[in-house]
Amino acid sequence: MQPRPQHGFRPVFCTIVPPHVLDKLSQSDDPDLAGPARRTLESDAARRTRRQMTTLVPSVRTVPVGTKSDKPERTLYDCRNGTQLPGFKVRSEGERPTQDASVNRAYAGLGATFELLLKAYDRRSIDGNGLPLTGSVHYDEKYNNAFFDGQQMVFGDGDGEIFLDFTAAIDVIAHELTHGLTQYTANLSYFGQSGALNESMSDVFGSLVKQYSLGQTADQADWLIGAGLLAPRVQGEALRSMKAPGTAYDDDVLGKDPQPASMEDYIHTTEDNGGVHLNSGIPNRAFYLLAAALGGNAWERAGQLWFDVLTGDRLAGDADFSDFARLTVEAARDRYGEGDEREAVRKAWSEVGVPSA
């Protein structure tokens, strides 16, 4: 196997709520729903453009260098409903909890992600070298999203009508932080199938962090992404379902979850960077099928294989689903031989219509 092509370092702007969801909300006749959605879309578009323009230019905000420690180095900030990042420092590593639940949840979620990477995969922070983890809460007013901007995590409070506080779901925190892990490893481009793989990686490890923190086996987990984010008025469970893509919500305002579960329903679109939040349902379901087939703790064998491929030297930045599937089969052979794991990987990809040979 030839080493993967080396691509330029490309930090991207990644959000947990897909643009198609916010676009649907923005068309509501209810100004309490449409207003925050429109402002969130505008804010995200502006930040995405700035990220693209400054990718090759050093940022004014530099990330401090960490040490290879077995302990995280977390710093939390409060934007006080403004948009200047990182905001006002409110909690540093080792300090006691504050009276702000959002700060404490973000602090715990960053720590849980650090712990899974360390305990399960012997990796110290997202860069492997103890990179400090930074988060900002209370970003903007009624901001309906959370994002990783290439340097730090940022959480909105939600509008209270459709979305609640974005620190409420630990898998959302881990999802966004995993974009940083991908950035420091395979650096998957954020378009088309490689972009959908990028999103799927964040869903996979977001779910694994939740399962690890709750002590859940694969059959006990809900395999939902963003459970607890939707307000009571919304008819739905979460933003996405890895077990059954396309079933997370079915609501008069949000519409029906459009994620496909197999290549048969793959969505060809120019929106959302080629449907990165939509088609990620396909590799998501493949991972769920593998974890369910292997049983036990999903972060062990199934998660290990995905981690091996993401952090190895053979996954190209522009990889498609079949490239990734083939590498997971090879990773299963390399780690476990010609046993049940390798066959389970092949079968999982086959069930979602992705060739792995």
How would you sum up this structure, described in words?
This protein is an alpha+beta fold. Helix content is 42%, strand content 9%. The chain has 10 helices and 10 strands. The protein has helices spanning 19-26, 31-53, 101-121, 170-184, 192-214, 272-279, 281-294, 301-311, 321-336, 340-351, and strands at residues 14-15, 74-78, 88-92, 133-137, 146-148, 153-155, 224-225, 240-241, 250-251, 255-256. Strands 1-5-6-4-2-3 form a 6-stranded mixed sheet, covered by helices on one side. Strands 7-8 form a two-stranded antiparallel ribbon. Helix 1 runs antiparallel to helix 2 (31-53). The longest helix is centred in the first third of the chain and has 23 residues, at 31-53. Mean pLDDT is 92; it is low at 1-9 and 53-65.
In brief:
It contains ten helices and ten strands.
Produce the secondary structure layout.
Layout: E1 14-15, H1 19-26, H2 31-53, E2 74-78, E3 88-92, H3 101-121, E4 133-137, E5 146-148, E6 153-155, H4 170-184, H5 192-214, E7 224-225, E8 240-241, E9 250-251, E10 255-256, H6 272-279, H7 281-294, H8 301-311, H9 321-336, H10 340-351
Parallel strand pairs: 2-4, 4-6
Antiparallel strand pairs: 1-5, 2-3, 5-6, 7-8, 9-10
Helix pairs in contact: 1-2, 3-4, 4-5, 5-6, 5-7, 7-10, 8-9, 9-10
